[in-house]
Amino acid sequence: MHFTSSIIATLGMASYASAHIMMTTPKPFGKSTLNNSPLLADGSDFPCKQRAGVYNPEGASNSMALGSTQPLNFVGSAVHGGGSCQISITYDEKPTKDSVWKVIHSIEGGCPARGVDGNLAGGPDTPDPDNYSFSIPDSLPTGNAVLAWTWFNKVGNREMYMNCAPIDITGGNSKSKSDTAAYDALPDMFTANIGNGCTTDDGKDLKFPNAGKSVELLGSSTLAVPLGSCQAASGGSGGGGASSDAPKATQSSAAATPTGNQGGVFVTVAPNASETAAPVATSAPVASVAPVASAAPAVPTNVTSNPSAPAAVVPDAGSSANNGSDTTTGSSETAAGTPCPGQEGSWNCISGTSFQRCASGQWSVVQSVAAGTTCEAGISQNMKIVNAAKPRRAIRFSNEHVRRHLAYSS
Asked: In whole numbers, what is the pLDDT of the chain averaged over residues?
C-alpha cells in the first residue's frame, strides 16, 4: 500500500512539474525548444530562457500597431495561485543579459489565473481559462523588437518565469521610428529570484516597485513589496512609484469565464471635474456613495473597461455617513517600507495631493490622487476624496470591500 501511494505521489509530482504555464499569444520564439519551467535560480538562462535556438522564430510573427490592444494568452495548469506579471519590450533583436527592457504593462495579482489558491485542473496542454490583454503605447519607436512576459508566482518556490516573442511595431510617422524619449522614460523590467539579491514574498501577490502607468490590479489585499536588494521604488527613469501622474488602471477583457473572484475594482473621477460623475468599474458589490452637497449627482454603475485615472478607494467603518472624525491632521510623507505598528489599514493623505497606506505592517509608496480631486490631509481609517472644483462628494467603500479589492495603496 505504501509502495502504491509512493508511486501515485511521484506521478502526481511529475505531472505538477510539467504543467507550468507558457505564453501562447503573442507567439513566442523557439517554440520547439521552449519548456514551461521557470528561469534558473542562478539567472544563467536570463533573458528569454537561453538555450540552443532561443531566438529562432519558427514561423512566429506578431505585428502590433501603435495604440492597439493585444491579446495575452497562456497554456498550462500549474498557476501557483496566480501572481503578478509584466509585459516589457527591448529593441535588441537577440537580447542578452545586458539588454534594456522597458515595461509597458503590469498586472498585480491574478496573473496568469484569477481567484485560485493553488493550481488549475488539467495538464501542460490545458488552455488557461483566463485571458488578458495589453496596449502598445502610441509613443513607442516603430520597427522590430522583442516582447517579454514575466511572471512571479504567488505560492510555491520563489521563481521568475519569462517567455519572449518577436514583434513588429507598426504605424506612426518617420519621427516615431527614431524618437526614443518616451520609451526611455518607461520603468525598467523588474527581476527577482534569479540570484540577483532580490526575492518575492511567498503567499502574497507581488507589488512591483516600478509598475509604470499602465497597471491592472486583479489580486487581493495581500500585495507585498519584494525583499532584499531590489529595483528602487521611484528611482531612475521609471514611471512608477511616487509618480506625478496617477497610474492608468485597466481591466482585462477576458473572453472565458474566469475562475473565482476576479478582483480589480477601480473608481474614477473625471479629470475635468465636470458635473457628471465618472463611472465605477466593478465586478463586486457596488459602493455606497455619500453626497456631501445635495446638488451632487449620483454615481452611475456602468462598467468601464479602460478608466482614465483612479481615485483612491476609500474605506468605511460601516456607515457611509462617517464624517472622518478619526483623522490625525498635519501628516507628512513617511518613507516607503517604514513600519507602521498599530496603524494597519490607515490612510495617510499628504497635503491633499497624494497618499499612502499602512499595509502588511509597513507604509506603501506615495501615490498621487486622481486629477481634479483632493484628499483630506492627515492619517485616518476613513480617507475622504473630494472633487476639487465642484461640490464635495465623498466616495466610500466598506473595509471588507477594500480588503478584497485594494487597488493602488497596498
From this structure: 73
Instruction: Report all structural domains of the chain as residue ranges with CATH numbers, in order of start.
Output: 2-249 (2.70.50.70), 265-410 (no CATH)
**Separation of alpha carbons 64 and 242, rounded Å:** 30
Q: Give the torsion through C-alpha atoms of 393, 398, 404, 410, to 10 deg.
A: 60
Pairing, β 63-65 against β 83-90: unpaired
SS3 content of the chain, % helix, strand, coil (to 5): 5, 25, 65
pLDDT band at 279 (very low <50, low <70, confident <90, very high): very low
Which residue, 302, 265, 309, 263, is CA-closest to 130?
263
The three cell numbers locating residue 283: 465586478
Confidence of residue 172 (pLDDT cuts 50, 70, 90): confident
**What pLDDT, in 10s, does the model give residues 233-248?**
643 333 333 333 334 4
Which residues are CB-contacts of 154 (< 8 A; sequence separation ≥ 6)?
80, 81, 82, 83, 84, 109, 203, 204, 205, 206, 219
- Which three cell numbers, joined as nine digits, stand for 214? 499602465
Q: Is the model more confident about 17 or about 59? A: 59
- The structure's pTM equals 0.57
Closest CA to 200 of 315, 317, 108, 90: 108
